[in-house]
Amino acid sequence: QVQLVESGGGLVQPGGSLRLSCAASGTIFRLSDMHWYRQAPGKERELVAGITSGGHTNYIDSVKGRFTISRDNGKNTVYLQMNGLKPEDTAVYYCNLHLRITTYWGQGIQVTVSS
């Protein structure tokens, strides 16, 4: 069993920054691909950023140049550094771990960008 716990969300003004963290239990973290998803009110959940076990990253076009995903295998933690935040980034952000055919989800953490 794997548990994912997100932290670092909150309320920030447009143009501000937040750093989300997702700490994973278990021993499979370093072998897994990690992702951040988000779901805004009334909208479908979307993939925001991903990082493979080897460190390759990818991003949805709307966050390229603003968000950075990274991982620390020694701490079993994946991060999402969010800079230049916009109101349209407001959503519940979910950490996701994927290994082979198995996925695990965090509980979600609120990010609100508003003046």
Key descriptive features of the protein:
115 residues, 0% helix, 52% strand
- Beta strand %: over 45%
Provide the residue-averaged pLDDT. 97
Count of helix runs: 0
The biggest beta sheet reads: 7 strands, mixed
Order of helices and strands: EEEEEEEEEEE
Principal-axes geometry comes out as globular
Structural class, judged by helices and strands?
mainly beta
How would you characterize this protein structure?
- This protein is an all-beta fold and 115 residues long.
- It contains no helices and eleven strands.
- Strands 2, 4, 5, 6, 9, 10 and 11 form a seven-stranded mixed beta sheet that branches.
- Strand 9 and strand 10 form a beta hairpin.
- The protein is globular and about 40 Å long.
- The N and C termini lie far apart (40 Å).
- The model has no long low-confidence stretch (mean pLDDT 97).
Quick gist of this model?
The chain has 115 residues and is mainly β.
Describe the SSE topology.
Layout: E1 4-7, E2 10-12, E3 18-24, E4 33-39, E5 46-51, E6 57-59, E7 67-72, E8 77-82, E9 91-99, E10 102-105, E11 109-113
Parallel strand pairs: 2-11
Antiparallel strand pairs: 1-3, 3-8, 4-5, 4-9, 5-6, 7-8, 9-10, 9-11
